[in-house]
What does this fold into?
Amino acid sequence: MNRRAPVFIITGGQGQCKTTFLHLVLGLIVGLNVRARGVIAPGHVRDGRRSGFTLVDLATGEHEELCSIDPDPRCEAHGRFYFRPEGLAFGRRALAPPDPRETDLMVIDEVGRFELQGVVWAEQLDRLTAHPHPPMVWTVRRRLLDTVVERWNITNPVVVDVGAASVMATADAVMDAVWEWREAQTFSPVPAPPVPGDRIANDAPLFAEAVAGGSPSAPAILRRRYGPEG
It folds into this structure.
């Protein structure tokens, strides 16, 4: 490829349904045999406040509790959350650098203040961005967006704001990047070590129904910035 594969950044304010938007985008492309790796992290609410997160491995469909607000001496404390060692190990395995010939899309939900402090998924993000990678989709809070882009030197972010974006048009843009990546791998002479797992484990009809009333003509990409060759 004559440029690095893009990093799509789904952004919005706290509680503005970034993970839900990501779910819907993945639901529209799951039927197209997109070989996705990475994690999504649905949150839990208790007494009106965020109380924890569960991780779902997109390659296997397996899930593991990541963190909660309940104190536990076995856990790593970051902010008000206690991160379970099993959940951290689970996520780090799911975010290992992929085989570029066997992976179309990497997903990280989400990249936030803990990663900017050098913990949770920071090391995995460093590894993923240090070398050529397939298209990626990250979720990032709006107030951290520019800091995240600068920290990981993302020269070609495609920024999607959930407040104005179309799920269907965003899925189309992601698929365009996936097809370009596949074409580039077809002609690439460089092999890579195999990594298990080959597709999104989601329920496509469920997501398709959820966006059936959406407007495909709504703006999908608010800012698209391609940088120099990487």
